[in-house]
Specification:
By secondary structure, this protein is α+β, with helices and mostly antiparallel strands. It has a domain of 221 residues: TATA-Binding Protein (2-Layer Sandwich). Helices cover 37% and strands 29% of the residues. The protein has a 9-stranded antiparallel beta sheet, with helices on both faces. The chain has a two-stranded antiparallel sheet with strand order 6-7. A two-stranded antiparallel sheet has the order 8-9. The longest helix is centred in the first third of the chain and has 36 residues. About 12% of the residues have low confidence. Component of the Mediator complex. Its main location: nucleus. GO terms for molecular function: transcription coregulator activity. Pfam families: Med20.
Amino acid sequence: MVTAVLFVNQATPTTITQFHDMIMNQLPETLPPWEFELGIFLNNKYSKPLNLDSKQIPNRYLYTLQLSYLNDEERGNRMISIINNNKSVVTSVPNSTHIINRLESFTTKGLNYYREKDESVNDKAESIEKDFVGTKLKGEHEVIDPEGDITMNGEKETEIVDLQNGSKTGSKTGSDLEIEDDLIMNRFEENSLDEMRRRKKLLKHIQNGCCNNLSVQTNENLEFMLVSKLQSLWTLKQTVRGQGGVGYIINVELEEGNSVGASQDGKKARAQEKFRLRTSNCLLHGTFKGFLIEIEHLDQDMERIEIDNELKNISETERKNRLILRFSRSISMIKSLIETYKFPNGNLCFNVLSESKLDYLSDLCQQYCDALQF
């Protein structure tokens, strides 16, 4: 997936409205609302070590980007960070609400199960006593059972069948089988009950906030750590926020931007292309700074190439050439989309961290950093 970010500086309400109307005319698939936050940190020059290697590039800028549409229940809130425009890392804060709900559900249901089981056992014991009040005795040892499967000495005989060959291996009395089943069930229930008690204690610790990132009251992501604990190394220069974000998925017919797709009569071939668009209003210190359009070309051939590169034994040179060709085509399709549908004029950024290997999140963060330079 190849992305690009178009930033329209000082866009007017009319420009934004016309753009959304134009997209809606294409009958797109709408996406949920979203927002973003870009933090720009400046390195403290006095914090550099004295024995710094002359070949080492000193740190200067650190960018952190949070995109709300990347958050989910399993991975939590993810943050993309880039330093010196050449290294990136993706960190995540676990979804505390999701974890606590799972702990509460497991613990509560389990403890309720054992409470209900204790009550049902007591009720069953009382009913058994009532059933055997009217039991008739024959002689001194014989007990009449309604089903007729209890012997003269009051013990139920059971034949054990070998499951592999179907042969009879012997017999055990009903009381012996019940004792073995009870031992197995008691061990299992003891382990389950101990696990529930352990999770109940863990849940109390989390709710009290003694575990970082797992308490409802805490939200300690990487940016929080930079601001609160690494102030001597990094200083927050500015924070750009995106609000009122909407998203679309559109299918449009575009002309191929290169000569390879040209037909024999000289006309350029047309192809059906799919894009994911996200727009947002950019604010700096509460002041509107511009209109941002995130464009993602959903190229299925690019995904196939990435899969083929992993499965097939392709040389490094050939792999890079194939990647560059598909990347160039995707950028050409993005430019063709902007030109065909007359997007607002702005700064189009499509730089990537590494030309030899694309990374969706890292490249997207790099493009946000390039576009939002005020």
